[in-house]
Amino acid sequence: MNSVYNVIVRPVISERSFDLMAQNKYTFEVARQAAKGEIADAVEKLFNVHVEKVNTLWVKPKNKRVRYQYGKTRTWKKAVVTIADGEQIEIFANQQSDED
């Protein structure tokens, strides 16, 4: 992969991802061909944190219907990144404090 911006597509914002933040785990949508090492390097460079572990999984498509057309959502790759204790990613920290 060329750039760290090509590896990480977007952060995943959901109730489950916010619950995982209490355990220092952050969830991202990543490029389909990204390896765990590339994901760890990208998160470390972008957010200036130390990555301890990366878990990846494929999100399978769901059946959807729009009026009379049937189809499926896209398949995408998700990464759950565990960072070192005492560190946090600022983008998520701001949103997390708003909910308290």
TrEMBL record:
One of its GO terms (molecular function) is structural constituent of ribosome. Pfam families: Ribosomal_L23. One of its GO terms (cellular component) is ribosome. InterPro entries: Nucleotide-bd_a/b_plait_sf, Ribosomal_uL23-like, Ribosomal_uL23/eL15/eS24_sf. GO terms for biological process: translation. The keyword tRNA processing does not apply. Signal peptide: none annotated. Keywords: Ribonucleoprotein, Ribosomal protein, RNA-binding, rRNA-binding. Part of the 50S ribosomal subunit. Contacts protein L29, and trigger factor when it is bound to the ribosome. Belongs to the universal ribosomal protein uL23 family. One of the early assembly proteins it binds 23S rRNA. One of the proteins that surrounds the polypeptide exit tunnel on the outside of the ribosome. Forms the main docking site for trigger factor binding to the ribosome. This is Large ribosomal subunit protein uL23. It comes from Olsenella porci. The gene is rplW.
